[in-house]
Input
Amino acid sequence: MSGLDMQKNERGCLERWEHAFEVDPADKDKYYLTVAYPYPSGAMHVGHGRTYIVPDVVARYQRMKGKQVLFPMAFHVTGTPVIGISKRIAKGDEQTIGLYRDIYRVPQDILDRFIDPMEIVRYFSDEYRRVMQKCGLSIDWRRRFITIDPQYSRFIEWQYQHLHEKGRVVKGAHPVKYCPQCENPVGDHDLLEGDKAEIVRFTLVVFLLGDIKIPCATLRPETIYGVTNLWVRPDLTYVRAKIDGDEWILSREAAAKLALQDHDVQITGEVAGTSLIDQRVSHPLCGEVPILPATFVDPDMGTGIVMSVPAHAPFDYVAIRDLQREGRYTSIQPIPLISVEGYGDIPAKDAVERAGIQDQNDPDIEKLTQEVYNAEFSRGRVFEKYGGKPVKEARDEVAALMMERYGSIPMYEFDTRQVICRCGSRVYVKILHGQWFLAYSDPSWKEEVKTVLEGMALVPPEVRAEFERTVDWLKDWACTRRVGLGTKLPWDPTWIVEPLSDSTIYMAYYTIAHHLKEIPAENLTPEIFDYIFLGEGEPATLDRSTLERLRSEFLYWYPYDYRFSAKDLISNHLTFQVFHHSAIFPPELQPRGMVVFGMGLLNGAKMSSSKGNVFLLEDALSEFGADTVRMFLVGSAEPWQDFDWRNDLVSSTKKQIERFLNTIQEGKGAEGSCEIDAWLESRLQRRIESTTAALESFQTRQALQEAFFGIEADLKWYRRRLPDGVTGSEVLRDLCHTWVRLLAPFIPFTCEALWRDLGEEGMVSFAPWPEADETKVNPEVELAEELLARTVEDIESIKKLIPMEPKSITLFVAPAWKHEIFRIVASSDDRTSGMREVMQNEEVRRRGREAADATKQITKLVLKLPPLLVQQIAELKLDEQEILESSRTFLEHEFGVPVSVQIAEESVHPKASVALPFKPAIVIE
Output
């Protein structure tokens, strides 16, 4: 098809598919897969494309396997993101307006309406659907909803009523991410920057300067015994403040943060950093220490004053060393208090000197600091005089001691810098009172979740550890907000359920979403959902037949089979939904599996809409065609691996599809038969088998490698082996029908056109998936061709190395006794020491040195060849002379010279003795 024809074909397919994937319960096995619904606040880029195309490949494959497949879609609009966007546009924010006008190319008349957040929702949810359809996603669009639909809100109310009754939603005071501008706690979905930031609890170690408190924030309170000094920035103006009635000195930024964390803070004056230098402060656990100057102190980190432990903190060690090189503070020496394997008596000194750190401006200090801290935390032990306990135990004990006796208090900070709300304002940590929290810290709930996870298939398997880690550390989660779009909390309607908290069990809602649209929201009482999802009660607001139909459909589809989502959501959404499923549904309705995606790159850099590093999906579809985009996104990496979009590589994918199309059109009318047909037929069964196995394990890239590149490679050899003047035979025609079906999940637009072209009825999207025919598998024929192909490759390699034009080629095949050695080595438990077993064979042993040399060479060959091939060579006992002799005409045609085949032992040629099983000796003269 030409480019124009491809566009015409895409439009035709979309018309035929308009309602084709709308699916209802049927008398056959179901397959229900879901993918994280998108937040429609901007245009889709190619990273989004991979997120939805990979599950579509799986959906199409399962549909062709005869399953009733449900692949639904909805749009998540809860929270403040679109509100923040509309506010920034209303304010005339150039960066935001530029993003929507120049990157997302929203028409000006529509952009002008974006001051209403619902206009953003309407525009981009329609845009998403249109672009998803252009991608060929086989979605049942009847079930589409947005998360502020009144029916969906009733569903969320029902869920939270249950969670509240079970004690899974509690009221309390906790540190949360908070936007002072919005006057609202914020979740990851509400952030422009810092969406991965976690709240970390620091201990404020309180030193005394007379009666004034000098606080230092630390994650390592156990190191107090090794403090030699404090650090302040000489050029910084600190503040004097009354905090909870006591006088403190700290940075202005720290005072503002503490004011948000349940402390009464009143600024009373200012203090120049220079005036603090060389003052002496004290703490009962380390005595009196001086205050020293340091340029690395950050007023926005902790309190802007840092306690120095040079024996265990590389930054402190280097800063002290820098001052002492100037002849200052030479009496200060590191005080070690932790021993850790792999480091010397003073770990920080040891690490700094090994790394060759020059001064405190060396960028490698940050990494070195983490290495020392991690080593000490995981393997370190404090000295006996400080208690002798492992660091991880001593840390908590010393922190508790400081809180109880020495005036320490906790302070909360983010583990990463700048956290920015979508409104554009900075986000802080605030202790929020009267807030509703999901009690994820509850040990009994965690145990329920772990039980569910044990029964789930997680892809790839290594993410299981990440899920388990998340379950273990997950703390109570602020699940409500004061402002934003969403569902009001049923028992406390002054609060709104926040975005991550209302998107946990919506997979159940999909099963009946299309029916609920027809029911007035006021009729969807909690009792209705109790009956539909739990089979409980006798609700009165719907008739019995409707209730039974809804429950029946839910039970047909649930539980879902697989959920697809990005790996960065393990730490929140993907784990949250397991918590909520375990709390709401019975054991038989718990999720069955999850597939976790890698990230998307554009020309090697992480895609970011806000930074303009995106390639819009619609642009890619227009420039390259839907199937090219699909094939590249699926074929560039396995789902759980990161992929890198590069336009030049995408262009080569387009050429690959054109080759496939031309091959089908050329081969569809092939007739007759050839000797090589049995090999191609056998290889095709292997490709069907391998593609199927790969798709069953979600290895979509491997499946494409087998279904496309594997078959293409087989065809290349097949054509090479055809007699002169023959372009194909009947087996090629049969292959075309199979090949189109194998590739239909990957490039459905092209395959629909070819399916019609082949004269087949209906849509290939619903054609039966090919099944391998074991009666057509011929291992002997495949192995014989493998021998021939490897021999041809060896001849070509030798020809490249010799500076002469060959006149003849002689092939020497290994004698039977070498084949016997091959079989012994191949079947040995330890192939590297097979000599002992070989020499137990009487016939081989009497060959002496010759047998020993041959065994060494054959062992090397066995270790080099693929294990399955070694097994086949050992078991099938090919007549290599017969195979090569019968292929002599082919070889002579390939190389244009006479070819002879001889048994090595019947020749006196010195090269004959190097012949090995499956590797003839080659002499070119």
